[in-house]
Amino acid sequence: MVDDKSAGYGTVKLAPLASDSESNNSGPVIKKKAPWWSYIWDYDPNRTKVERKFIQKLDVSLLTILSLGYFIKNLDQTNISNAYVSGMKEDLKMNANQLNLIDVAWTTGYVVGQLPSQVILTKVRPSVWIPSCELVWTILTFCLAAASTSNQVIAIRFLVGLVESIFYPAAHFLIGSWYKPSELGKRAGIFHASSAAAAMFSGYLQAAVYTGLNGTLGKAGWQWLFVMDGVISAPICLAGFFLIPDLPENTRAFYINEDDATLARKRMDDVGRAPRKKLGWSILKRVFTRWHVWALTILYIIFINVGPSSSINPLSLWLKANKWPVTQINIIPTGQSAVQLVTTVGFAILSDYLQNRPLVMSISTFLGLFNSLCLAIWNIPVGLKWFSYFISRAAVPYGPLSMSWANEICGNDAEERALVLGIMNAAGYAFNAWLPLLTYPATDAPRFRKGFIFSTCAFVAQFIITGVVWWLQRWENRRKKEKGRESELGAVPGSAVEL
């Protein structure tokens, strides 16, 4: 058996994957060989049938509704980029700088709403707060279809960012409140992969809408995109009120009985994941006197800002500059999202299997560094340029893995965990509100020379901060072990060690 507590995963018990036999006082015990799928999905031979069914309930309900929620969030977030290259720019007489301003407006709202939302999350049930905000941003998405000026779009996008700000850190907080470390990475990866599915779907949807509905009822194709996004989002918002189970200590979900709730609390207690306590001013001292918030926030600031903002897709603008048809401009970049989807799930599975978040995060960083370096050089073979554009999304899995890592590093303090996740995301997007204006201004399209050079340097910095956080985590775990040994010695009568 392996105890991986030193890796920051809590106490995780893993059975050997090969056939083995052991002897004890009762005679030899033959261990069943682990199934082939244990290399892909979490497998624990000591897990009871009741616990297996409970985890399946969580996957079908919590993981599904959060993934669908992130799907519609990203659908409503990325539709601006699709609408811009599909006629909105011409119809609203927008210039390239206004696209940047629309993105700044969304990001500003996203940053402003982040921390208040995380505080509210410690007071209000997630099953009420999250779907309510989803419903508001769905209504605002319908409003975008009626916008007639770029200023209206900017104002609406600010409000969209404000209500969307609650979702990502809240979802990671919920996932980290129900799943063990050996289960966490895969679920966080699957959750995050829904954003790639949304980007793909938005491209296909815009292409279909532009072809089939452009001009219908006097509405342009880009306006119909917002209408269709709203129609898709509404039922998912309503389902959230019933399927989000809140937290193990206060769940009232219809599909979780009292035995399930007791099991959930025990599972979290076994891995040192603390439940919520009454929120007080002491939380500020606990958060800001630990290294967690400072190092993890720097890590996430770098990750969020290694590339352009969400409204700027260098591949789409490169295709537009080379006179590709609108339909293909919307469809071809969905290949990037496919790469993101596969690598996000694949890297998440690998990180759970290896039980080593920083190693897999570094692989993701390397792929991002390679792509940005190639595009910074620019004068490269056309095939390599296409490859670089598509492989760029392999750098995205770093994000959900870092959130899973933060969930584990801060696992002993639920309030710290909630605030640190919120601060990480808010700080990252606080820089993202203005930094892409300097690094990836739309006026530099399609080459973005200084942007790709900046990304190359940022990925190097990402390597460094990943190593720093890894070292700090190991240092903290060593200190905890030393204190534990000292406490045990101090508790022995006649011990020479004084504490």
From TrEMBL:
The keyword Transport applies. One of its GO terms (molecular function) is transmembrane transporter activity. The chain crosses the membrane at residues 128-148, 154-176, 188-210, 222-244, 287-307, 327-350, 359-380, 452-472. GO terms for cellular component: plasma membrane. Keywords: Cell membrane, Membrane, Transmembrane, Transmembrane helix, Transport. It is a multi-pass membrane protein. InterPro entries: MFS, MFS_dom, MFS_trans_sf. Signal peptide: none annotated. It is found in: Cell membrane. Belongs to the major facilitator superfamily. Allantoate permease family. This is Pantothenate transporter liz1. It comes from Lachnellula suecica. The gene is liz1_9.
